[in-house]
Amino acid sequence: MTAHYDLAIIGTGSGNSLVTPDFDDKLVAVIESGRFGGTCLNVGCIPTKMFVYAADTADHVTGAARYGVDATLDGVRWTDVRDRIFGRIDPIAEGGKQWRIDGPNTTAYLGRARFTGERELTVSLDDGGEAVLTADQVVIATGGHPVVPPVVEQSGVPFHTSDTIMRVDALPKHMVVVGGGYIACEMAHVFSSFGTEVTILARGDRLLRHLDDDLSERFTEIARGHWDVRTGTEVTALETVGDGIRATLGDGSTVEADLLLVATGRAPSTPDLHTDKAGVELHDDGRVRVDDYGRTTASGVWALGDVSSPYQLKHVANAEARAVAHNLVHPDDLRAMPHDHVPAAVFTNPQIASVGLTESECREQGLRYTTKVQAFGDVAYGWAMEDTTGICKVIADPATGRLLGAHLLGPFSSSLVQPLVQAMAFGTTAHELARGQYWIHPALAEVVENALLGLELDAD
Ligand SMILES: Cc1cc2nc3c(=O)[nH]c(=O)nc-3n(C[C@H](O)[C@H](O)[C@H](O)COP(=O)(O)OP(=O)(O)OC[C@H]3O[C@@H](n4cnc5c(N)ncnc54)[C@H](O)[C@@H]3O)c2cc1C
Ligand SMILES: NC(=O)c1ccc[n+]([C@@H]2O[C@H](COP(=O)([O-])OP(=O)(O)OC[C@H]3O[C@@H](n4cnc5c(N)ncnc54)[C@H](O)[C@@H]3O)[C@@H](O)[C@H]2O)c1
């Protein structure tokens, strides 16, 4: 029997929020092959930031002496940290699943979906069975999954990805991280602050290479003070040694550890979706091809979030879901996916946040621009914190005074960046933002105010 629905949603991350009151009198199929709530809730943003907060707390203790406050870190109860986090998260995922199972107009399919025709899905159910369903509209919200390089996969050594690392039973003594991006830098911070010795193996010459050069260079230098950072290196072989692993690097050197974390990017979850059966085209990198409104190349099939987006960020997936939720029921009044001025933060040590263009992007685009770099240590709250490395770099168009980009490295950067995001979103000029409002003295936000005031604009 083929069941028919008004709407079928594949994936309960951001896809779960599509079941709006507009569908109260309609039939909705919700299909999920993993934990309800998707990456962010179960293995992404939320647990990582809960671990990061605990790691920051440990760092406050170990760093207290510089303020004349002597304190020692007596220990980190890893399983207590872990269980507090997942004790809070797991019931939410379970509750979300029950809500969809019991929902008056939703049918939950627990299993893996694939297209078997136009707007027709076959679900390999977790209980071993199979179900076929069709729908007037289908939304692909299957997110992404960790990429594991062949050298790791083919070696047969045990390894972790972000999907598993947060649930390990004990803190490793020594951990090797392959990759130098978001997950590598956030996890290195967590584990090293809890007492694990961390070695990072990065292919490039710097960590977090997507950042403005001033930040990635500075961050890599700081990271070398916390962790054993090996840049410009590749893993050529891996083997199991006792309970741990040994990695051989391009220069023939080796590094041994009791745990291997692979953090080499995430790929859109399309390989087993059989999108070709539904007329849904993919980009070369596997992302579903969508137009500005989230429409795929197949009529009535939509996509959103990591599976199709140019960004792999939850606030973007949420914004795209809001647009698609509207578009599903307003075909004559479509809303575009909001992709302007997308900010991002890396919750490592120190925190990093950015929005807009980097200086090299401004150069490459031939833009006329001016920059100002303000040190956290030059404002009163920065003195209080004894900060010696933080910077706020702002980039503006000198003719219009509009911000082109903003890049922060230092405590609370993920929050400090927000007025800069707001200025870019609403077209406020740098000096309007700085002079048109009060900035509380002596709050850390004065670093942003001073950076803005320091920009040399044509109008001044
Ligand atoms: C460790 C980590 C930390 C992160 N931290 C941040 C952060 O701090 N801030 C931020 O903005 N972003 C962060 N991200 C990125 C963020 O988690 C993702 O951008 C976001 O969750 C993507 O949401 P989504 O709805 O597109 O996909 P997902 O949340 O991944 O949802 C997809 C769902 O589809 C299901 N699924 C897949 N294929 C099928 C199928 N064939 N059939 C049925 N179900 C299927 C999956 O099981 C999953 O539940 C982080 C990611 C990771 C991995
Ligand atoms: N705070 C946040 O917003 C946050 C946190 C975690 C993850 N995320 C999202 O999840 C995505 C995935 O995170 P990630 O850290 O896995 O990816 P990433 O793209 O940030 O970093 C991947 C790293 O792996 C390296 N790499 C790629 N292939 C490799 C290979 N074969 N061998 C060795 N190194 C290789 C890259 O050079 C890069 O340093 C991020 O791009 C981000 O969008 C966001």
TrEMBL record:
Cofactor(s) of this protein: FAD
Highest rank taxon of the organism: Bacteria
Sites where the protein binds FAD: K49, D306
Covalent S-S links between cysteines: C40-C45
UniProt protein name: Mycothione reductase
Residue stretches making up the FAD/NAD(P)-binding domain: 5-320
Record: active site: H441 (proton acceptor)
Molecular function GO terms recorded: nucleotide binding; oxidoreductase activity, acting on a sulfur group of donors, NAD(P) as acceptor
Keyword set includes Nucleus: no
PROSITE patterns named among the record's database cross-references: PYRIDINE_REDOX_1 (PS00076)
Binding site residues for NAD(+): G179, G180, G181, Y182, I183, A184, C185, E186, G265
Domain Pyridine nucleotide-disulphide oxidoreductase dimerisation: 342-451
